[in-house]
Specification:
Blueprint lengths: L11 H14 L6 H10 L5 H20 L10
Helix pairs in contact: 1-2, 2-3
Protein name: LppC putative lipoprotein
Keywords: Lipoprotein
């Protein structure tokens, strides 16, 4: 259902809620969709929320992918 929505049409606060819903829907299943949602949500978060949520979810996704044999290099 979320895939049918166009977040570009939303106000910034609605975009933040959309991306959070995508992240919650993807929990436990690291995927390209989850990574896209995390990246899209990042500029919409307050600085405190960015550090807490973004890094936690991204680190979990990278740990999961590391076991797949794919190149998951991460640089700051």
């Amino acid at each position: 259902m979320l895939d049918k929505l166009k977040p570009a049409d939303f106000a910034p606060n609605q975009q933040a809620r959309y991306w959070q819903a995508q992240i919650v829907a993807s929990q436990g299943r690291p995927s390209l969709t989850l990574l896209r949602a995390l990246i899209a949500q990042e500029p919409l978060l307050a600085a405190k929320d960015k550090q807490k949520k973004y890094r936690r979810h991204l680190a979990g996704a990278l740990r999961h992918d590391a076991g797949s044999g794919q190149d998951v290099s991460y640089q700051r």
